[in-house]
Amino acid sequence: MITVENLHKHFGGFHAVDGASLSVREGSITGLIGPNGAGKTTLFNVIAGVLPPTSGRVTMQGEDITGLPPHALFHKGLLRTFQIAHEFASMTCRENLMMVPGGQSGETLWNTWFGRKRIAEEERALRAKADEVLEFLTITHLADQRAGEISGGQKKLLELGRTMMVDARIVFLDEVGAGVNRTLLNTIAEAILNLNRERGYTFVVIEHDMDFIGRICDPVICMAEGRVLAEGTLDEIKANEQVIEAYLGT
Ligand code: ADP
């Protein structure tokens, strides 16, 4: 689904991504691990159009998407969530979900005067969809709560929920498990597995929690110093000498 070829991202003289090449199989939940500073987040940012690459190529199902901006990738079904959730704090959880699809009739001045009926219908449909998503994620009770007031783990669930408001095809998750308690982490794992099985989402997941990775990811790709060191099942990766060395060296 995604192919990254010899990707470089330099910050001045520093090579955060230094010739990374990898592929993500359609329908997989691919784990991306590696010591701190390995270049995982930078790689995500380049693939997701947040940062331009210094050189290299990214393709999505054969189409060159290198350097496309996030909104163009969003329309192709490529979404990225952030390690720190980017919720709209003063809006409710339901409203945070309802605003994801964009291009709504109520956004144009003309329609707010003349298209009231259409706006109301759209809003009803969006509200119903948002409520379905909240239910799927077992956070219906948070629907009317301000997003800025929910816990860190619940924000991660809400971010996952935002990807469900549109027809995502591939979702890049950056440390969904960071700072999340076990119960919520299980809910997040279940939600990812369900989205993968039932809606065919492909996932690429950066995560430090190896239990979480082992439970949901196959294959696992390990990066260090801006490059891919190894790919395989988590057990294979854990037994790989280069991987062990990379972790011990930090
Ligand atoms: P990881 O996600 O694997 O921990 P990162 O991609 O966050 O690694 O970072 C890789 C390296 O690139 C780190 O040494 C980090 O300090 C550096 N880096 C990341 N973003 C920038 C930036 N905007 N400017 C300079 N250096 C950066």
Automatic annotation (TrEMBL):
<dbReference type="GO" id="GO:0016887">
    <property type="term" value="F:ATP hydrolysis activity"/>
</dbReference>
<dbReference type="InterPro" id="IPR003593">
    <property type="entry name" value="AAA+_ATPase"/>
</dbReference>
<dbReference type="InterPro" id="IPR003439">
    <property type="entry name" value="ABC_transporter-like_ATP-bd"/>
</dbReference>
<protein>
    <submittedName>
        <fullName>Amino acid/amide ABC transporter ATP-binding protein 1, HAAT family</fullName>
    </submittedName>
</protein>
<dbReference type="Pfam" id="PF12399">
    <property type="entry name" value="BCA_ABC_TP_C"/>
</dbReference>
<dbReference type="Pfam" id="PF00005">
    <property type="entry name" value="ABC_tran"/>
</dbReference>
<keyword id="KW-0067">ATP-binding</keyword>
<keyword id="KW-0547">Nucleotide-binding</keyword>
<dbReference type="InterPro" id="IPR032823">
    <property type="entry name" value="BCA_ABC_TP_C"/>
</dbReference>
<dbReference type="InterPro" id="IPR027417">
    <property type="entry name" value="P-loop_NTPase"/>
</dbReference>
<feature type="domain" description="ABC transporter">
    <location>
        <begin position="2"/>
        <end position="250"/>
    </location>
</feature>
<keyword id="KW-0813">Transport</keyword>
<dbReference type="GO" id="GO:0005524">
    <property type="term" value="F:ATP binding"/>
</dbReference>
<dbReference type="InterPro" id="IPR051120">
    <property type="entry name" value="ABC_AA/LPS_Transport"/>
</dbReference>
<dbReference type="InterPro" id="IPR017871">
    <property type="entry name" value="ABC_transporter-like_CS"/>
</dbReference>
<dbReference type="GO" id="GO:0005886">
    <property type="term" value="C:plasma membrane"/>
</dbReference>
